[in-house]
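Continuing the batch. This is chain 6 of the set; chains 1 through 5 are on the previous pages. Same settings as before, nothing changed between runs. Recording input and output for traceability.
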Amino acid sequence: MEIQAAQVTTWGSPPQYLPFTLPPPTPTQHRIRVLASGLHNLVRSRAAGRHYTVSPATTPLPHIPGVDGVGALDDDDGSLVYFNALHAPTGAMAQCINLDRKDVYPLPKGADPAALAAVVNGTLSGWMALTTRAGVVPGSGGGFTVCVLGATGVSGLIAVRIAKAMGARRVVAMGRNPVGLEQARQNGADEIVRFGEQPLKEVNFGAAAADVDIVLDYIWGEATSAAMKSILTQRRNPNQRLTWVGIGGLGGQILELDQSLLRKSNTFVCGCGPGAWNKKEQAEQLPKMLEVLVQNEVKADFEVRKLKDVEKSWTETGTKRLVFEP
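Output for chain 6:
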């Protein structure tokens, strides 16, 4: 089947809108007509050859970007579905895609394809961090407390909303952008902490977050070093478990940390991403997450672009998530 798709022909270069021959689906696959796919940070990183899930030395080109999306089944009445294409041979930014049936999840009628394509990937990072890494059971009423470090980006803002929807008693939002922090407050954050106007070592991160149970960290690097020191040295009960989950690396991939902080506190530092959780866990959590997203009308700011314009739209910057429609 001849289709059009966004294709990276050189690692690090913007994809081009080019013809592609899609083979017939196997008996274990669905063919999906793609309706919308988001340009997430993960998608950009993979297309540049910089993410650990691709290897420029071994991953073949062309690379069709896009790790997930919303589409319609091509083999029945056109039912609306969400699909995960992270491990698929071809990516989501195409007119059609073949996917294993286990990577396809039904959506309720009336769901907005572009809105869901913009929000699901950003939600997945925080949801999987809370459930598979921090052990939160959605709706259990555990009354846990959360700090979102880097709460002003798309994923961080969603994490604030999701933490509340999952039963968090208190959420602290931290970030540099005052507009984003105000939006985090509107999303349910109980306290906000702004940094960036003074040296990080002088910011009192612990004043608001010293006794939280979980930190969802979208920044890492120097900001995390400063925040971790401030929080751990101010905990009233050092035996209280703190699960610090590294999700993003906007501040760099290297963390400088005084090991004594870990030896004198009950702190578990871990990461969250494909590999930290497995496909079975994802398959178990995705339907629950999609239900919460639809029921709570969780949304992110996004702008729609046509897939044929992918090359010129790829380098656009801004606070809104770009969503491509074929």
